[in-house]
Structures
1.
Amino acid sequence: MAVSITPPKKTLENRETFEKLSPTSGENLGTFPIGTAEDVEAAVARARKAFPRWRDMSLDERFTYLQRARDIIRQEGERYAQIISADTGKPLVDSLMTELMSIPLFIDYYEKEAPKALGRQRLLPQLLFPGKTSYIEHFPRGVVGVISPWNFPFQLAVVPMISALIGGNTVVLKPSEVTPMTGELIRELFEKAGFPPGVVEVVQGDGSTGAALTAADIDMVFFTGSVATGRKVMAAAAEKPIPVELELGGKDPMIVCEDANLERAARAAVWGAFLNCGQMCVSVERLFVVESVYDEFIKLVKEEVGRVRVGCPDEACDMGPLTFKGQIDVVEEHVEDAREKGATIALGGKPMDGPGQFFEPTLVLDVTTEMKIYQEETFGPVLPVIKVADEEEAITLANDHKYGLTGSVWTQDRRKGLELASRMESGQTSVNDLVLSVGNPALPFGGVKSSGFGRYHGHEGLYTFMNQKAIMAAGGRMNVEPFWFPYGPKYPTMLKTFKSLLGGNMIKTMKHFWGLIRMTQKRD
């Protein structure tokens, strides 16, 4: 596919650069600059300068710019999909469905919900605060640094960016060096949408550029990536300190119950494992199958794996190559470790012949808990299967893991499905479905345990990028409050109020408290 996008030549003059190679053919698709600490500081300074104007705009004014961005994506979606697919190797359907389609949905959702979520909220009056009205407000954090990954380089950058922008923050994005073409596409999007200078800054580069961003004068870091790098980001942010949201890895369990629709579950398991070549933090990476339906289910899974079409990112293929070349070594290591420890490689198991970073769709049976393929995130086209005696064993094993991002339960008994879903220790859980909940703009997304912390999407996805302010306003008619000095004469009445309050007698509490108010208003 002859698609490429490169930065203006002036950005490459006298600069350290890196080359972008096609994951499907190995050809050079472009040369990109490695942003220095000085580049990052300059970008942050521009974002800092732009912040007051952007902060002081109304929500409607900010959405005018976001609506333009939404319309550009709708108009140029085919070209955008081609560039993303060339950059990542993923099929065009995946680029449209998982990268681009969700952005207009999120903008439309927040256009309706942001006024309610970010507007001043009046609380109900409280017993011992008569004459006072309480409110909650939100105001932007300031300059937000977003460090995005290579597996969904458009969606996992743009969704947190627009969430931060809606609340009045400015954003500095450091895209992954593995997918720099998409980073330039994001720069183009916000420039074409006419965002004021400095409101959105994009700095290409490698790990040193990301480290410089976390060390710069920003007010928050939003990081999506590996656990190891997430720890470094958190440590750097703690030096200031500034808030951090970490969206990290997963080893997501799928539980197939005895009464599941096996055909649906088999198709879902294969799609959930091999979508985006398995390079998802929400991939099915541990498939638990109840023993009574195991043989029938595995037969269906094998048939589905055999139907997966692997190839270049055109309309016909289902699965492309691994985006990051180094990931091939990880996948091979996990498969070989499983083989050595007694697992059965039922299908696939090795890189494919020919050019590109292609790996066979791989089905691994007889997986046990001591294997790397069970313990660590594989992030490749591998489906590990674990046979369990019953659903109780499945939920115990699912929860006994360091990761807790998403999971799914498959049963035709919705009540049982919801019960098991509630017991699963994860940030999101689905019943008879998987992956798609991530694209629901109303559902908060994020993990527990080593999968990170914080939430975005939904109302929480706006609050992530906001400071919260509590306001309590008094009418000001009383000259003195009952809790103010002098204390001495108030003690007996205060004691009665205290005892009746703790005793749960609200009538006596109010009687004593109003006596305290009357006493307070008397002047010596």
2.
Amino acid sequence: MARSRRSGSPERPPARPERFPLGPPTALHDYGVIGNLRTAALVHRAGAIDWACLPRFASPSVFGRILDPLRGGTFLLRPVGAAPGFQRYRPSTNVLETVFEGTEGGTVTLVDFMPVPEGGSDEDAARIVRIVESDSAAAELEVWFEPRFEYGRVTAELELTPGGVVAESGSTAVALRGPGPFEVGHGRATASVSLAADASVAFDLSWGAAPRRGSGVRALLTQTEQFWRGWVHGPDAPLHRLAARWHEPIERSELVLKLLSNPTTGAFVAAPTTSLPEWPGGRRNWDYRYAWIRDAAFVAQEMLLLGHVPEARAFLGWVVARLGPSRRGKRADLHVLYGVHGESDLAEHRLSHLPGFLGSRPVRIGNAAYTQFQLDIYGELLDAANLLAAIDPDGIPRESLSALLDLADEVGRRWTAPDQGIWEVRGPPRHFVHSKLMAWVAMDRASHLAERYGGDRREARWRTTAEAIRAAILEHGWDERRHTFLRSFGEPGVDAANLRIPLVGFLPFDDPRVLGTVERVAADLTRGAFVWRYEASDGVGGRDGSFLPCAFWLVECRARAGQLVRARRAFAELLQSASPHGLFSEEWDPAGGGQALGNYPQAFTHVALLRAALALGLAGAGRAERARIAALAPYLPGVAGVPGAPPTPPTEPLLTRRALSRTTSRATARPPGRTPGAPRRRPRP
């Protein structure tokens, strides 16, 4: 391949000239996301790809301007001097359009997508296609191609090629094909391209030094649109039948969840980004480009309700592979999170050279939560397995069932121990009520799985343990004076995670203890429709925003309890916290017009939205729809008829008062303080 004009050095990234046409990123909602089921990219409405890790979700970034406006790297493509456009997705796809209004009445549309391959490696799949189309008027396009490898630490060497540019550093390379001519210098390639009226041009970026061959970009666009439209749920999906009035946010959530999956492994990542802050300028910045057992189990359940059984089967198969074969009655420990390909060492590191989004440091890669003990993950996993068994009795092979049921024995051995909980506190472990709740779910669902598939000699023991856990929650986790479930045994404080108590069938939605907890959460942790997780110290410090999944859980609880007016009003308000194209972050600051916070887009939030829509659909079902609910009951956790009716508690719980006092003494040495940024007990409107 003929090449010329090298530019760049891996030693020290040069300062960017002031002529770069965009200012620093300021809002997450300015970004749309595209992906190929192996990785994803964020596209700013000004036409810049400001985040892309290639070839995998957790690979080092190639474009990282969202974390470093000066040296992070970007790929800008837009009409010269155009103001940021508006973004939309082509119907029922993850193909993103950014529309720029022309000065002469016409428009220029930038179409961004990542082709979804039928097979091959992640490296072969890493490809971004950008097509620019004019309407009615000619336009002059500006191109700024500035890859920065290794999270902006390495400036690539750029070389002109007969069809574009290649950027290389050691064994890392990306190739860009597109109209030029390009000029290279200072570690970047720039071009000015004339676009005639009613014409189009294409730019094709691929991983590796050799440009991809094969189908033309128009054929790739057609294939990609057909893939997404052929995958989205049909009218017979349980969730669609009951919540069709919210079809648009449901379908967008569905497409986001699929985009965050990997078809070759079955894993789902929590988000495609790292270190987007829970508060601007704060230090609560985490890497979410991995597969959490909890989050992925939630996604698998929603996939089932949307009719995507193969995705749920693949996820459970991926988990079973992590457990490995039984050796002397013992399997590999289940970690809290993994890399998509099963990586279990996710040591956390700080990238001190990056200033972070909105100046939020430190920027982290890896996640130290992989070393934590979080008891609740077993319950979420077995809940998903039980749902799969209800929908597809043949969906769990015998050998996989054995591995999953062995997890119940693990819960039986460990449920009396304190843990870090669903919120992954970095302080002393505690006896979190939600963790015990999900331990109960694990034992309950394991019992029902065993019964469904012909029994297991351990089933009676599991049921006895489930009864003991239930008794411990009701004795140690209930605050009679404040009429609410506590955050953890023996400690004051409210936790929005306890909204899940009725959602998993532990108590009915109209139980006075559930209603009391719902109202206490609403009184202590909410502002409008938005809900904070808790008030207590968590060992991290710093402010955070309201947690959107908890807000959707509150909607679900109110809808199932018959408080439809309040539930619908809150749901409508929460939908306004989506981006203009329907993407949700993890957190939200409702003050000053609202601001999206945390990693983006966030699978957890989209899952909670789907559940809330389903609950509203159930509550508002007409006569014809109500006739279907009985048949759908096995699909809907927390609905009458679902496994999990409260059993009679035993006279002597396994977690004795003596054991409780030993394991909570350190956790209660200091009274918990309010997390900065959370609302006060009675937040201002």
3.
Amino acid sequence: MAPPLLLLKDIALTFGTSPLLTGAELGVSAGDRITLVGRNGSGKSTLLKIAAGLVQPDSGTRFAQPGATIRYLPQEPDLSGYASTGAYVAAGLGPGDDEYRAHYLLGELGLNGEEDPKRLSGGEARRAALARTLAPSPDILLLDEPTNHLDLPAIEWLEKELASLRSGIVLISHDRRLLESLSKGIIWLDRGTTRTLDRGFSHFEAWRDEVLEQEERDKHKLGRKLVMEEDWLRYGVTARRKRNVKRLGDLHGLRKKLKEQRGGGSGLRMEAGETEVSGKLVVVADHVTKSFGDRVIVRDFTDRILRGDRVGIVGPNGAGKTTLLGLLTGTLAPDEGEVKVGTNLTIVTLDQRRATLDPAMTLANALTGGHGERVIIGGQSRHVVSYMKDFLFGPEQANTPVGVLSGGERGRLMLAQALAQPANLLVLDEPTNDLDLETLDLLQEMLADYPGTVLVVSHDRDFLDRVATSTIASEGDGNWVEYAGGYSDMVAQRGYGVRAGAKAQTTPADERAKPVSVRADPPGKAKRLSFKDKHVLESLPGKIAGLQADIAKFQRMLDDPNLYAKNPQKFQKTTQDLTAAETALAAAEEQWLTLEMMREELDA
């Protein structure tokens, strides 16, 4: 085994009066692929910051091999003080680092290096931070939730990029598919200490359950009763996972039935038992078209969503997922065609931006609306503390202000609020952002029990596989097609996943306009496209087509497995040409998008 480049031993840290870490350990060697897992609030991010040298522990040792380069990706990157994203990424380069790689990474992540950090969205800031972290090709990468706010093409690109690196990687992520693909070892942080498993993430849950069950048996042998709420919270995860094994089997059967029924045109579905049931037809979309300017976002889309369906909507950022969601729920009117919303329909939308949460309100009052100590769930009155426990909150947290809750806890609170409202159509727009693995388990559990219909926009492939009975996917150019099953079923049917080519479909409803590189008109003066801008807009499609042809040519040359052995210089030159062409293509597409959006705004 290779000697560790980074080693943490007997790390202890206390916040206030509560010990967070009590003897945690971490070792990273060249080429390691380590997943750091643990319950929300267990100290994963703090341990990663200690590994990065950003937080000093109360006790224990941190050793980094002299000369080893370590790069850390925080959950909330800070770009203040930098004039552009390019300057921010360049500041992370060291002597001898390849500046061209920094430009390549920015292009791959949908940035051109000229964006003003003050105008970036959270997702764009994370993309810039990823480019800064990966550009030096460091010896060790410490990544805290790298896929948050990335779309599916970016996530799948990142997965391939990380797999190609020689760096040792320590990864915190809620994306099970990414973890299963990359991890070769697991460090489980539980109650302040760490346990290690030298196997991939797909073995984690079974291993964790065995450890917890053995602890339970040992405690019973010692005559100790498991009466603490913490034990229920921990062991409850195991029970829920086992129940979901059967539910997952039921879901596969439901997908098969859905495919057979819709293929035969019957359109019938099993009826879900609800106190207030909706009509059998929840949404009927008939040849619906929606455009913004000259760009068609939804083109001649026809579909029926039936009571009890769980429909996933997937596509790259800017494809029009939020627009399609608005059409299906009746909040956005189509330009052509008709959308009929079913009878007796009550809609609840899960606001993952958490803008509706009052930070000064206590957790209990947030659930009761400040009225008493009871909530009505499914027509039955329950004490708020009892309902809180369903969402992994302890009784002592009832009077905790919402403002001090962690991101995962706020996510659970939003779930509790949404599912407490009487509804038969649940609309989830990016529900998995910032949720930890345990909260994702809880969300899947809640959806398995939910008696109504679900529409969900998500970039989480595993989540869609576990939840969706059908998937509506963007095919580009405003075309959307529904496939039976989850994300993997969709890939099996169409032959590929979500591609980034639809990013030119950006609309005001889906993503705010990116900072433009063309000069803005002075205030008070009517905006217009200059003659040069018009010429560039007309010539860019031909340039983009030429770059795509060059990329295909270089890729065919590199497909020769013997090229490097026969001609190393040609292999190196072709690789450089391919990278340059891909970067140029990304820049050209971005420039076209900027100018096209400006033209549409002027036309409007």
4.
Amino acid sequence: MYRNLKWKIPLILATILGAAWLAYPLDKKIALGLDLQGGMHLVLEVQVDKAVEASLERIGDDIKREIQEEDIELDSITPDFKAHQIRVTVVDAMDIPTVEKVMANYPYLEKKEVTKDGVELVFHMDDKEAQRIRENAVDQGLETIRNRVDQFGVSEPTIMVQGERRILVQLPGIKEPERAINLIGKTARLEFKMVNEAMSVQQALGGAMPEDSEVLYQRQENKETGEISKNSFLLKKRTVLTGETLTSAEVRYDSEFNEPYVAISFNSVGAALFHQITGENIGKRMAIVLDDNVYSAPVIQDVIPGGQAQITGSFTTEEAKDLALVLRAGALPAPVVILENRTVGPSLGQDSIDKGVKSIIYGSVIVVLFIMVYYRLSGVVAVVALFLNLVILLGALAYFGAALTLPGIAGIILTVGMAIDANVLVFERIREELRLGKTVRAAIDAGFAKAFRTIVDANVTTFIAAIVLFQFGTGPIKGFAITLCVGIVASMFTAVFVSRTVFDSAMSRKKINRLSI
């Protein structure tokens, strides 16, 4: 039995030294959660119905293009957002069979009725398709927000779905909360629209607004006075190109005034469309619109090949960087609204750290005093095992990159109690065996053997509960579950394996007739 010490002792030393190396220095290796270092807590709601509306609008454009390719004269294609329907109206009722043939490409659109003397078809979107779009909007929104936060440079963020349409965002240590909110909540839908130069904005606003046009505004800020002005544009509603085909967006500076701008590039599909659009509209103005705000509306001087464009707008460097960031991360599939916005100050977080550390120290001191008084020299073995348990726990947290939260500190405190509890079970078993008149060596063997099953049962059930908490809990609960899981594994190793090795090592050196327990 004692020959096993040749590999047990090196294994224990390697584990302890490895854990200490992983955890050192502690303040740099283990990130603190939101409740300990301060930061932002946001709950966002994705406007999933807007995603369904956008999908209906895109489908309507696709249907229009396919029907026109069949040389059918269309009257209109009108999405009904409230009813999740698309109305297709043709000029000649004889074209209805061809329209129905085109609509067969959209199996999720069910024909509901034919109206207006047989020239209008009404198609309803399948409820399952609408639900799929809603779910995708939340999933895509989650990934887009995660990409933006990653590029923003926040360490250990928590970004997860809550319920059917909500997203939880926790940003520990964030120093620019307003900027973070702007980056996270911006839809970032990039559109290119032609300026309607057939009439002035004043005429359109005076009551002559064409059905195919809209008025959008360009926000301009005077850098010297801080005064904000708005410049209005009459734009065609039809979007000739979107940001979905973007491949890159980066900040550059013009050579004349050193003003920052955002240079964007399109993929092959976008580049071909951009080449076609600029070729067909030389001498006309094309507006670059982000979230219904006009950034610029330059005149197309010539055909632009290669899919390269610029977004200008009297930016500061930070504004240009943020715009490039959201364009690279992609547009949100639907707008989001902030339901909850809480900021935890760093001083409050430091106060939580101080109280948490004190609770660990006080709890550990009380446990150590009790165990050493009650179990004497054997209690010292338990205390050493407890200390090693904390070292392994901190090393594991550093290795897995887990953020330490206030509930996580509670998990550490609970682990301290559980580690001692395992030793108590072993020691009480050893005492029972000694009362029965067994030798010290036999009592130790029997004590560890009989207590082992009870220790495993207790720890396995707690471990399963911790796994469930991790699977279904939110950020703070997950922090508690992680520390509890790691602590259980560490306590099993130290309370059973390490303690037994210490006893075996002592028994192998000399014969012990009386055990201090």
